[in-house]
Amino acid sequence: MRQVWTCSGLRWSGDGPVLVWGGGRRSPLARGKRVAFGVVAGGVRTCVGARGNACPVRAVVSPRGTGARCEECARLDRAHSVAADTMADDPRPYHVYLAWFGPGMVKVGITGVERGSARLLEQGAVTFSWLGQGPLMAARRTEELLRAALKVPDRIPYADKRVVRAELPGPAERIAEIRDLHALAGRLHGWPESLRREPFAPVDHTDVFGLAGLPTAQGVVSELVAGGVIDGELCGAAGPDLHLATGRGVVVLDTRLMTGWDLTGVGGGDRDGHRDGDGGFGVPFPVRELRVADLGVQDGLF
Questions:
Q1: CB 139 within 8 A of CB 130
Q2: Rounded to two decimals, what is the model's pTM?
Q3: Average per-residue pLDDT in the chain?
């Protein structure tokens, strides 16, 4: 009988990406590593619960969603998140940052100082710089100031980030956009007095993500399916995305789609991902075309 694994998602550290599995097992991912797994035939995707607690009804959830939570667990998880603005009395210090994902794609955001740059790695930020540091609500007001005065968004769709990763400009151009925006932000009136401003000090993740020479992706996995398999070689990773060279070309796998499924290892077989670990045949996961035309540029187990 094949061993079954549950994936807890992709985690980032200074050493690179790591897949985390139920029971605490960790699988470091380096470029050139083989990534091969299948979804147990006949299985369904179930809710992963909220705040470390299992879903009480083990609800079946959509294979296309990245959250892998039922409506009730999603509500409970968000109710205790910083993004929901329900933690005004949080005593921890927060950073405000500018993050660059590609030409014309800059966002403002906040993250706990104790997390360092982990949040930026998780989002796939190619380059970033801190703007300031202070209490949560001061950081939130600064974020709102940039959104209102400079029209800087607080979200960049992952679909947009994926399209441009293989064709990014050089270091000088990557830095220039957030450098200019950092300078504009510094001249704004209305900064909270409790937020300590920080100088422009860009950090680049190109090498960490393996973006230099990254092959252009032909498609992105749209969902996992029962009995489906994937088998590829890791070309690069950014945020939750793995860029895999497969028999069908380079495809992007959003690892958030892996949570909630029972997964098993894949043995030898062709690189199209048709043969499972017991020598039987599975089906490749559905892949949709990754098209530049879809880009929405902002105005302003292994």
A1: no
A2: 0.89
A3: 88
